[in-house]
Write a structure and sequence with these properties.
The complex is a heterodimer.
Chain A (H helix, E strand, L loop, with lengths): L9 E5 L11 E7 L2 E8 L7 H7 L2 H9 L6 H16 L5 H29 L3 H22 L8 E2 L2 E2 L7 H24 L2 H7 L7 H6 L5 H5 L6 H4 L22 H25 L19 E9 L2 E9 L7 E5 L1 H13 L7 H8 L3 H5 L1
Antiparallel strand pairs in A: 1-2, 2-3, 4-5, 6-7, 7-8
Chain B lengths: L2 H10 L5 E6 L6 E5 L4 H12 L3 E10 L2 E9 L6 E9 L7 E3 L9 H13 E3 L29
Parallel strand pairs in B: 2-5, 6-7
Antiparallel strand pairs in B: 1-2, 3-4, 4-5
Helix pairs in contact in B: 1-2
The chains are: A alpha+beta, B alpha/beta.
């Protein structure tokens, strides 16, 4: 006579702070043994009242809050806010400033993707890869420090351009760093990408089907890994992306698993390097800003909705001006919000040991979810 | 057919749906002011017949004594996008303003509605309390919200 071990679903609360989580959030898991039967996600622990703060400060000061939307890739928040304001005020951006903005955006994309890659590697226990990737990310952060004085939250964009021209030698340093990272991509592939251990932990794990991605409006590398080819730089070009030659990277076979999301980010590094090479080769001389914005700057009455392709997906910004010295309303549409909404369905059926790599591969920014 | 004409024709099928057409900001893009009472029907029509299958953004703001909701819908195939707008009067007694939810038609809308609900005091039918943790009384993004005073320790 065999005995059956009676088991019940166990409940597991993770967070708000946990090493496996991308930021302060709470995951309530109901698991049957090792398999997650149900997941609930609670966010709001990093709510900073960003959109309210934007309404309380003059336009030039509110730009700093836009910069803090996602501290790990702050340039995107600044850029989308500037684009919306420039559309309302019909403020032109000189070609040199556009080139500098594209350089900063693509460097921010490289930095963000390298961080995401390091987190995936950490999630599967590949510490060597973590160190290699973060070593290369430091070089990008050094470039940010060279141009603006800070490694994160650059606060370098201004309405109508950028805060200052880049220092002499900066463009050459960008080209040098791009060349280094391009060589490192081969190193990452040799060391990690196709290693048996990583493939076993990532193939078929954390699958995000295309239908689910469409249902929740998921964009960016997560959607492209599932076969949805939307890239805002192609679909709604801005800052001269329409004349740049680059590929929209789709996941191999559209599987939408951890490995596909990893591969998309890795290949997007190569595309960003290619964009940077083109922009650095053709960066025109000229003004770095068309206007100087003072504290008492007033924007004409109006509104605009701007969108860009951030490292995590479609980042939108709806700005309304009532003709005063402060924004009447500024609202951000962030890509991580869509992923959070789909997270319970992605985790259902996954193993608890796969929680870390799945969350890492989704590259959620809790800061931009909570704002 | 021009997308604006197509939307105008669709809205004309629902009596009282379209309030007016204006410009969106200072651009040439058309903004369709619609009646919130017909919002669900409008959303169904716009999705099913014009192909706007993605609610890219839903934002709210207070204008005088009304809450204005701005819906940016996108066609994921053609990348065309339209702007719909509706408004609801504030009740003046601090209670939540009712607004129909479009999350049955656009599931991604739930995320926006859950955020707008606690911040502006909106009761979207079928949507819960919201996901912003209420560490405050009142609705912070309304213009009459009193910011808590900070006192030096």
């Amino acid at each position: 006579m065999t005995e059956c071990l009676k088991t019940h679903a166990s409940r597991w609360q993770i967070g708000p702070y946990h090493a496996a989580l991308p930021g302060p959030m709470r995951l309530s898991l109901s698991s049957d043994g090792d398999i997650i039967a149900r997941a609930e996600c609670e966010t709001g622990y990093l709510h900073r009242g960003l959109e309210k703060a934007l309404e309380l400060h003059p336009w030039i000061s509110s730009l700093v809050y836009a910069d803090h939307l996602d501290p790990e890739a702050s340039v995107f928040g600044e850029t989308v806010f500037c684009l919306a304001v420039e559309e309302i005020g019909k403020i032109p951006v000189p070609p040199r400033a556009q080139a500098i903005r594209v350089i900063l955006l693509e460097l921010a994309r490289i930095s963000s993707h390298l961080l995401a890659i390091s987190r995936v590697a950490s999630g599967v226990g590949a510490e060597t890869m973590v160190n290699y990737v973060l070593r290369d990310r430091e070089r990008v952060l050094d470039l940010f420090e060279l141009v603006s004085g800070v490694r994160f939250s650059l606060n370098f964009l201004r309405f109508g351009g950028v805060a200052a021209d880049v220092t002499e030698g900066f463009i050459e340093r960008v080209v040098e760093v791009c060349e280094t990272i391009r060589h490192r991509l081969k190193e990452y592939n040799d060391l990690f990408t196709f290693s048996h251990a990583f493939l076993k932990r990532s193939n078929g794990v954390g699958v995000l089907p295309a239908e689910l991605a469409r249902r929740f409006g998921i964009t960016g590398p997560n959607a492209r890994a599932s076969g949805i080819g939307l890239d805002v730089r192609r679909a709604f070009p801005y800052l001269g992306y329409d004349v740049l030659d680059f590929e929209v990277v789709l996941g191999p076979g559209g599987e939408g698993d951890v490995h596909a999301r990893f591969m998309v980010r890795l290949r997007e590094l190569a595309q960003s390097i290619e964009i940077l090479r083109q922009v650095c080769d053709s960066a025109p001389a000229g003004e770095f800003a068309s206007i100087r914005v003072e504290r008492e700057f007033r924007l004409p009455k109006g509104e605009a909705y701007a969108r860009i392709e951030s490292a995590r997906g479609l980042l939108g910004c709806h700005v309304v001006s009532d003709g005063g010295t402060k924004p009447a309303r500024a609202q951000f549409r962030t890509p991580s919000c869509s992923i959070i909404q789909a997270l319970p369905e992605i985790l259902r059926g996954a193993s608890t040991e796969d929680l870390a790599p799945v969350l890492a591969s989704l590259d959620i920014s809790v800061a931009e979810v909570d704002r | 057919m021009d997308i604006n004409e197509q939307i105008t024709q669709l809205l004309s099928r629902i009596p009282g749906a379209m309030v007016e057409k204006t410009r969106f900001g200072r651009s040439e893009r058309v903004l369709f002011w619609v009646s919130l009472a017909s919002l669900k029907e409008i959303a169904r029509l716009v999705r099913a017949e014009a192909g706007f299958d993605v609610l890219e953004n839903l934002s709210a703001m207070q204008v005088d004594e009304s809450l204005v909701f701005t819906y940016v819908a996108m066609n994921s195939t053609t990348h065309e996008w339209i702007v719909l707008r509706g408004s609801a009067e504030l009740t003046g007694d601090g209670k939540r303003v009712p607004c129909p939810s479009v999350s049955e038609i656009w599931p991604m809308a739930r995320n926006f509605e859950q955020e707008i609900s606690p911040l502006f005091g909106v009761a979207f039918d079928g949507v819960g309390e919201g996901r912003v943790r209420a560490a405050h009384a009142g609705f912070p993004l309304r213009k009459d919200f009193q910011l808590p005073k900070w006192e030096a320790p």
